[in-house]
Write a structure and sequence with these properties.
The chain is α/β, with parallel strands linked by helices. The protein contains 16 helices and six strands. The chain folds into two domains: about 25-160, no CATH class; about 165-330, Trna Endonuclease, Chain: A, domain 1 (3-Layer(aba) Sandwich). It is about 55% helix and about 15% strand. It has a six-stranded mixed β-sheet with strand order 1-6-5-4-3-2, sandwiched between helices.
Length: about 350
C-alpha cells in the first residue's frame, strides 16, 4: 500500500476570474520584460554576427590584396569553414565574397559598429547591391534602422529614391505652422511623387491618373509614406448650398490631421492654391475633430516654376505644399536626385555633433 508521500502532485493553475485584479498587470509586466529581453538578445546577436562578418571580410580583403589570390582560395576557405563549423551557416563562397565587399565598402569600422552592424545581413547585402554611392548607403542604412524597414521596403525605397525626395517640396509651413511642427511635417512629404504604378504617362488626363491612384491605392499609400490613411476619392462637401468634390482625402495618423490632395495634369498656376485652401477650410469646419491639427493641402502638378510657387505661397494662410509628379525615373532625374544628398563628410560631421551632445 502506497503512503501519502508517494502521491504525485500535479499543480493546477486557478481560473483567471478567481485571481485578484492586480494579477493581469503582474503578468503583463513580466511578459513585456521577457519580450524586450528577447529582442535585445536577438539584436545583440545580429550585431555581433555582422561585426564577425566584417572582420572576416577585412582579413580576406587584406590577404587577397597582399598575396593576390582569388576565387580558388575563397572556395577552399569556404569548404574548410563549413567543415570546422558544420552547425553554422553563412560560409558559402558567395557570402564570403559579400563579407570581403562589405569590408571594402565600409572602411570606417566606427561607422560599422555604431550604425551598419545594427542591420540584418540581408539588408546590408541589399545596400551593397543597390547603390554604389557611399553617402547613399549610409543614409539609407540609418533610415532603415530608425524606421524598422524590412529588406523589401529598403529595396523599394532605394529603387524609388525615397530619401532623396523627402522634404524637398516648396511649402509655406515655416510661416503657417508652429516651429515645433514645420520641419517634421515637411519631412512627411516629397517632391516629386513617383506615380509609375498607375500606368499613366506625361500626357494622361487627370481622371486617368486619379483612376490609377485609386486602383492601386496600396502602392500609392506606400509612395506617400508611413502614417497616411485613405479616407476617400471625390469626397463630397456641401457649403452654401453648393457641392464640391475633393480629388483625394487622407488622414495622417502621426500628424493627427487631414491631408487634402488635388491632382493636376497641367503645370502649376497660382489660382490652383485658392481652390485648395478653400477645400482645407471646409474640411476643417465639417470633418476635423477638435483634437485634430489644421488640415494640410498638397497640390500635385505636372510641372512647376519654383519662383512662381514661392510667390504664390506667400499670400496663402493655409499650410500648403506643391509637388510635381513623375511616371518614370530617367538617368538624368536619378542623377539629379542623388546630387541632393549630403556627402559622407557632412553626414559624419552631423553624427559627431549629435554624438557629442
Amino acid at each position: 500500500m502506497k503512503s501519502n508521500t508517494d502521491e504525485v502532485y500535479i499543480p493546477v493553475p486557478p481560473i483567471r476570474y478567481e485571481l485578484p485584479e492586480w494579477y493581469g498587470n503582474l503578468f503583463k509586466q513580466i511578459k513585456e520584460l521577457v519580450a524586450n529581453e528577447r529582442r535585445r538578445v536577438m539584436w545583440e546577436a545580429n550585431r555581433r554576427m555582422s561585426m564577425m562578418y566584417y572582420h572576416i571580410g577585412k582579413i580576406i580583403l587584406n590577404q587577397s590584396e597582399q598575396k593576390g589570390w582569388g576565387a580558388r582560395i575563397v572556395d577552399r576557405l569556404s569548404a574548410d569553414l563549413k567543415a570546422a563549423y558544420p552547425e553554422m551557416s553563412g560560409f558559402s563562397p558567395r557570402n564570403l565574397k559579400y563579407m570581403q565587399r562589405f569590408a571594402k565598402l565600409w572602411p570606417d569600422e566606427e561607422i560599422v559598429q555604431r550604425y551598419v552592424a545594427q542591420l540584418p545581413w540581408r539588408h546590408n547585402i541589399c545596400l551593397m547591391e543597390k547603390t554604389d554611392k557611399p553617402n547613399r548607403r549610409l543614409i539609407y542604412a540609418m533610415a532603415a534602422i530608425k524606421n524598422g524597414w524590412s529588406k523589401a521596403m529598403l529595396e523599394l525605397n532605394l529603387e524609388n529614391f525615397t530619401l532623396e525626395r523627402e522634404g524637398k517640396l516648396p511649402t509655406n509651413f515655416d510661416k503657417i505652422l508652429p516651429d515645433s511642427q514645420s520641419d517634421m511635417v515637411r519631412q512627411m512629404f516629397k517632391d516629386p511623387y513617383l506615380l509609375d504604378f498607375t500606368g499613366a504617362d506625361r500626357n494622361s488626363r487627370e481622371k486617368e491618373i486619379e483612376d490609377g491612384l485609386t486602383n492601386h491605392i496600396t502602392k500609392f499609400l506606400l509612395e506617400l509614406g508611413q502614417g497616411f490613411s485613405f479616407v476617400g476619392r471625390q469626397v463630397h462637401l456641401e457649403m452654401g448650398g453648393q457641392d464640391y468634390y475633393i480629388d483625394m482625402l487622407f488622414y495622417h495618423l502621426r500628424l493627427r490631421r487631414f491631408v487634402v490632395i488635388e491632382l493636376k495634369a497641367i503645370p502649376f498656376a497660382p489660382e490652383m492654391m485658392g481652390q485648395l485652401a478653400f477645400y482645407q477650410t471646409v474640411v476643417d469646419h465639417t470633418l476635423r475633430h477638435q483634437s485634430d491639427e489644421p488640415t494640410i493641402g498638397l497640390l500635385l502638378v505636372k510641372s512647376k516654376s519654383e519662383t512662381i510657387v514661392k510667390y504664390s505661397l506667400e499670400s496663402i494662410n493655409k499650410p500648403i505644399g506643391v509637388a510635381s509628379w513623375e511616371t518614370t525615373i530617367t538617368k538624368e532625374i536619378a542623377d539629379e536626385w542623388k546630387s541632393t544628398l549630403p556627402t559622407i563628410e557632412e553626414i559624419e560631421k552631423e553624427l559627431d555633433s549629435g554624438y557629442q551632445e
